[in-house]
Automatic annotation (TrEMBL):
NCBIfam families, A to Z: Ac_CoA_lig_AcsA, PRK00174.1
Residue ranges of every copy of the AMP-binding enzyme C-terminal domain listed in the record: 569-647
Designated name of the protein: acetate--CoA ligase
Recorded family membership: Belongs to the ATP-dependent AMP-binding enzyme family.
Ranges of residues in domain AMP-dependent synthetase/ligase: 120-507
UniProt keyword Transport, yes or no: no
One GO term (biological process): acetyl-CoA biosynthetic process from acetate
Entry EC number(s): 6.2.1.1
Gene3D superfamilies in the cross-refs: 3.30.300.30, N-terminal domain of ligase-like
């Protein structure tokens, strides 16, 4: 493992792989296999390892044929010419590009809605909506959803949104969020959903980058008992973006009466329009804009190892086929299921597995507006019983936080309807896995621990419930068509039982195609570190039985409650504070959040440390990125450990942050080794 802590050849910013050590510890802790019940397997889409291997083999031997057969189940205005895939993933052979079904003409919104209605699902519930407050709820059938989507699509067209234009969506989990996504897709507009927990500055940054024709938001939302004025945040962002030369003409605002009335909402005549005043007046049918499979569907910004978020671009056809197929198999989907994914549509999970994947399958999807512990820690299971949820998909951080509250919040509900559980966002530790399995799922429901990324569009490594025995904490095996490889620091594939960097060989239909406006960064970040492969940024080990154990990021990205945050983003927010001279941020283990944010801060000469200053530094991060990125700890640093060339040695900072003071390693290459002692002295100040 030690050798893995060095820089791989050609890699940009790969730092420490201590996570791999953790992975090995996990793997040795668990030697138990959890078998699916005979009852479950016998009804499963993939009932045995043999069946999985048979399908998997075909998907690898003939990817174009395999995915073409699946793609044919969707509606195409015009079929793609053969072959289904064209790609170059090897930077040594020219520019990287990936194309699936190019030349095929389709529309994903049509496939989610019209196709299902035509197949007789018009009266089936598409969305069960549960509000933050107990007793507030609503439903939309597939026909009703189609009508709502058409009305909004007509409105957007009317205000000049055309195929290829960007639309920024800044909404909480109201039904209007998936409606807005599907309306954009219907007219070929490119949606860019920004999680409604992001600050005005982050929103402005995204608006400046993609220059949207319109912004869609709401006036306010209640999280728990507290109303948050989203429209104020949007106003500030639009002022900010205008100052940077990007002005937006239309701000469509949904009046969310449960949180705030329109009278108390600030308003800019001419630009701001109430959704309820205009959208319902439009016709409930709207012609589809037919698009090429490779036309862009959406942009989603995600954190990387520099301060500037990356605009991950997904296209239409491959993403459609991939999200639909992964959803179906990883959750063993049946038409009678009621599916609930707790993710917000502001993240990739909400794109692929709240909106597109499930709706392409005609599933009934539950959308919950509020916090999972409001009014108390039993809310999730209350909702599960209320709607008879059969598939429940969430993040390990929620599992851990509910586990701490005690079993009684779970066991006072029946949960009999549950059949499959899912986990996403970060590695799930075996003890949380067991609690989830034994207590939440009554030892009856397989857990799909789905490993994937914003960039991958859909699941890459995931159990197929009923197919394999599970190991608590392992994401198990690759999905169909996916070839994970583990490489060493030189980029050489390692076979058998091993640990290293997780890469993917070949492409899959759901892969992202570029970073918006920066194809060079796309190639440099993902394809140059290990030429010939897509590099995930994650460490992984494979055990003797071939199970995969994801061990966390190996770059300067931290994962807080399943949210990706670049250390550089937090650092740049901190140093924007007038009294902060320098900052270095590392991730530390956190009992509930998985990782916490630990910031070393050097103040401007002569400025004294104070509790007040600590608070205002944290506030700077909340304001610039969002509350979810607020540092858990500010560690005063008279100086930072740097090499003679001025590079901060984060390896040492990580050890200090986790108080592993006897493992600091060699500090002799530091320009000033005494800095380390000063930091240790100040650790608990
Ligand atoms: C879907 C999503 C991606 C990063 C990824 C990895 C971590 C996600 C995981 C997991 C272990 C899992 N991650 N799922 N690690 N097991 N089941 O979360 O996308 O926000 O882009 O984050 O999350 O580190 O590289 P995204």
């Amino acid at each position: 493992v030690d050798s893995l802590t060095t820089m791989p050849s050609g890699a940009g910013k790969i730092s420490c792989l201590n996570a791999v050590v953790l992975g090995e510890a996990l793997a040795s802790e668990v030697d138990e296999l959890v078998f699916p019940s005979h009852h479950f397997s016998s009804q499963a889409l993939v009932p045995s390892p043999q069946k999985y291997l048979e399908i998997y083999q075909r998907s690898i031997d003939d990817p174009a044929g395999f995915w073409s057969d699946i793609a044919s189940q969707f509606y195409w205005k015009q079929k793609w010419p053969q072959p289904a895939v064209s790609e170059n993933l090897d930077v040594r052979e020219g520019h990287v590009y990936i194309e699936w079904f190019k030349g095929g003409i389709t529309n994903i919104s049509y496939n989610c809605l019209d196709r299902n209605v035509e197949a007789g699902l018009g009266d089936k519930v598409a969305i069960y909506w549960e509000g933050n407050d107990l007793g507030s709820d609503a439903t939309l059938t597939y026909s009703q959803l189609l009508q709502r989507v058409c009305q909004l699509a007509n409105y957007l067209k009317d205000v000049g949104v055309k195929k290829g234009d960007a639309v920024v969506i800044y909404l909480p989990m109201l039904m209007e969020l998936p409606i807005a996504m599907l309306a954009c897709a219907r007219i070929g507009a490119v949606h860019s959903v920004v999680f409604a927990g992001f600050s005005a500055e982050s929103l402005a940054q995204r608006i400046v980058d993609c220059k949207p024709k319109a912004v869609i938001t709401c006036n306010a939302v209640k999280r728990g008992s507290k109303p948050i004025h989203l429209k104020d945040i949007v106003d500030a962002a639009l002022t900010g973006s205008a100052q940077q030369g990007v002005s937006v003409d239309v701000c469509l605002t949904y009046e969310n009466q449960s949180a705030m009335m329109r009278e108390s909402t600030k308003w800019q005549e001419g630009r701001d329009v109430w959704w309820q005043d205009v959208v319902p007046k439009y016709p409930t049918t709207c012609d589809v804009e037919w698009v090429d499979a490779e036309d862009p569907l959406f942009l989603l910004y995600t954190s990387g190892s520099t301060g500037k978020p990356k605009g991950v671009l997904h296209t239409t056809g491959g993403y459609m086929v991939y999200t639909a197929t992964t959803f179906k198999y990883a959750f063993d989907y049946k038409p009678s299921d009621v599916y609930w994914c707790t993710a917000d549509c502001g993240w990739i999970t909400g794109h692929s597995y709240v909106t597109y994947g499930p709706m392409l399958n005609g599933a009934s999807v539950l959308v919950y507006e509020g916090a999972p512990n409001y009014p108390d820690s039993g809310r999730c299971w209350d909702i599960v019983d209320k709607y008879k949820v059969t598939i429940f998909y969430t993040a390990p951080t929620l599992v851990r936080s509910l586990m701490r509250e005690g079993d009684q919040y779970v066991t006072r509900y029946s949960r009999k309807s549950l059949r499959v559980l899912g986990s996403v966002g970060e590695p799930i530790n075996p003890s949380a896995w067991r609690w989830y399995f034994n207590v939440v799922g009554d030892s009856r429901c397989p857990i799909s621990d789905t490993w994937w990324q914003t960039e991958t569009g859909g699941f890459l490594i995931t159990p197929l419930p009923g197919a394999w025995p599970q190991k608590p904490g392992s994401a198990t095996f690759p999905f169909f068509g996916v070839q994970p490889v583990i490489v060493d620091e030189k980029g050489v594939e390692i076979e058998g039982e091993c640990s290293g960097y997780l890469c993917i060989k070949g492409s899959w239909p759901g892969a992202f195609r570029t970073l918006y406006g920066d194809h060079e960064r796309y190639e440099t970040t993902y394809f140059k570190p290990f030429p010939g492969y897509y590099f995930s940024g994650d460490g992984c080990s494979r055990d003797k039985d071939g199970y995969h154990w994801l061990t966390g990021r190996v770059d300067d990205v931290i994962n807080v409650s399943g949210h990706r945050i670049g250390t550089a983003e937090v650092e740049s927010a901190l140093v924007s504070h007038p009294q902060c001279a320098e900052a270095a941020v590392v991730g530390v283990e956190h009992e509930v959040k998985g990782q916490g944010i630990y910031a070393f801060v050097t103040l401007v000469e002569g400025v004294p440390y104070s509790e007040e200053l600590r608070k205002s530094l944290v506030l700077a991060v909340r304001q610039q990125i969002g509350a979810f990125a607020a540092p858990d700890k500010i560690h005063w640093a008279p100086g930072l450990p740097k090499t003679r060339s001025g590079k901060i040695m984060r390896r040492i900072l990580r050890k200090i942050a986790s108080r592993q003071l006897d493992e600091l390693g060699d500090t002799s290459t530091l320009a000033d080794p005494s800095v380390v002692d000063q930091l240790i002295e100040l650790a608990d100040h």
